[in-house]
Design brief:
Elements (H helix, E strand, L loop, with lengths): L2 H4 L15 E4 L5 E7 L2 E4 L6 H17 L12 H10 L6 H19 L9 H10 L13 H20 L41 H15 L2 H13 L3 H5 L11 E2 L6 E5 L2 E5 L2 E5 L7 E5 L1 H12 L9 E2 L2 E2 L23 H9 L28 H4 L34
Antiparallel strand pairs: 1-2, 2-3, 4-5, 5-8, 6-7, 9-10
Length: 420
């Protein structure tokens, strides 16, 4: 309490004057009350009934005079308004992480909870929402993976957890339950495993499987370069973006060095990354610059790839060179391109050659810049898909290095090969 209200030592206590609130009208005819207390302005939320707004203001003023008032605006903050604030607090993170957050927010979180106050969210409805995501149909015409549901829930936990730290809400309703679920084995020695009993399979591809996979992709595409690309990926273990960026030409400054005698090498020094429908050069993840040794059989395959590569990619030309090269002044010498010179998209490549959907299923190409384009309704439409058009879009951090509009470059996402 200010000294003026307490009075000096030996002086009688001076009671504070009760503030007089005044009404303010909203656009839709709702009413809120505003008042001043100790030099600051306070407001109630908008109410349809003016008497409710006045009663709320009177209650808060009484609490302020008696000294136990607390800010009630936090739990009444709309989820989308808090996400706008939260996005501004992200700081310097990878553009791919921003793209992932944007997908989860705009395609799953806001379509379900837009317009809700933070304090009104409950654990039960968030639990049911996560379980319902794998039952909905994605833009590829198949149900969402469980990892999508888990990722969306984890991001909502992070968003609401930061709201707790900011004092907006007291607890995080999205936090998962802790402890064991289902049947619990009694304590004691674990039962012996029989020799023929199945064990957990490691996520490692064997040489025979790698060869079969490469042959499958080449047969389905009708192009030998897909065989070379998959053999190179399986042997070297490069990431997808690093695989798309593989170049080679007959020169000393080529990253691909094919030796007639000795060890052939490939220098991994950058990657191609697609963000919002735009393919562009980017640094390697975690600065993983390295030189890969190539065995003779793989060096022979790469020599064939260099001799039969396409002359250039189909990216838009800027200053006489493809925009995907960025500041790199060398000519485009990509070895692994689509049949028409486009950069293959990872999801499309997987759909076409790895996990081909059955005939008659819907397979759509996602619109450039839109992370969650939906297919037509097929009886069990996705709520996320139906609400996409009316979902509020937060202002996400700009993508660094963007050289052209995604909507003006239909070829930047590569060439889509028709099924069959």
């Amino acid at each position: 309490m200010p000294a003026a209200a307490r009075g000096g030592r030996g002086e009688p206590r001076v009671p504070r004057r009760r503030p007089k609130p005044w009404p303010e009208s909203g656009r839709n005819g709702s009413t809120r009350y505003v008042w001043r207390f100790e030099g600051r302005r306070y407001r109630t939320p908008f109410y349809d009934d003016p008497e409710e707004a006045r009663a709320d203001a009177s209650t808060q003023i009484t609490e302020q005079l008696q000294g136990y008032w607390h800010d009630r605006s936090g739990p009444r903050t709309l989820l989308e308004e808090w996400i706008d604030i939260w996005v501004g607090l992200l700081g310097d993170i990878e553009p791919t992480t921003v793209a992932k957050y944007r997908y989860f927010v705009e395609c799953h979180i806001l379509p379900e909870f837009q317009g809700r106050e933070l304090g009104s969210l409950t654990f039960e409805e968030i639990e049911a929402w996560e379980k319902a995501i794998p039952t909905r149909i994605s833009a590829r015409g198949r149900p969402y993976a469980r990892s999508v549901a888990a990722g969306a829930r984890s991001l909502l936990i992070t968003i609401l957890g930061d709201a707790v730290h900011a004092g907006k809400i007291e607890r995080n309703p999205a936090e998962r339950r802790k402890g064991r679920r289902g049947r619990v084995r009694a304590k004691g020695r674990a039962p012996a495993r029989h020799a023929g009993q199945a064990t957990a399979k490691a996520n490692v591809i064997t040489p025979v499987k790698a060869l079969c996979l490469a042959e499958r992709c080449a047969l389905l595409s009708g192009r030998d370069i897909d065989f070379v690309m998959n053999i190179f990926a399986a042997w070297t273990g490069v990431r997808w973006g690093e695989l798309l960026a593989v170049e080679g030409w007959d020169s000393e400054d080529s990253p691909l060095h094919l030796a007639d005698s000795g060890i052939s090498t490939y220098a991994v020094d950058w990657q191609l990354r697609e963000l919002g429908g735009v393919v562009r050069k980017a640094p390697l993840k975690d600065g993983s610059y390295r030189v890969l040794d190539l065995p003779p059989f793989l060096a022979d395959l790469m020599r064939w790839a260099v001799d039969n590569r396409l002359p250039t990619c189909r990216c838009p030309v800027t200053d006489g060179r493809p925009a995907c090269k960025g500041d790199d002044r060398t000519l485009p010498n990509y070895l692994f391109l689509g049949p028409k010179g486009g950069h293959p998209r990872r999801s499309n490549y997987a759909d076409d050659f790895l996990t081909r959907p059955p005939k008659g299923s819907i397979r759509l190409v996602r619109a450039s810049g839109d992370p969650c384009t939906s297919p037509p309704s097929r009886g069990q439409g996705s709520r996320s898909a139906r609400a996409t058009a009316s979902t509020r879009r937060p202002i996400w951090p700009p993508l660094p290095g963007r050289t052209w509009s995604a909507s003006s470059s239909p070829t930047t996402t590569g060439t889509r090969i028709p099924p069959g």
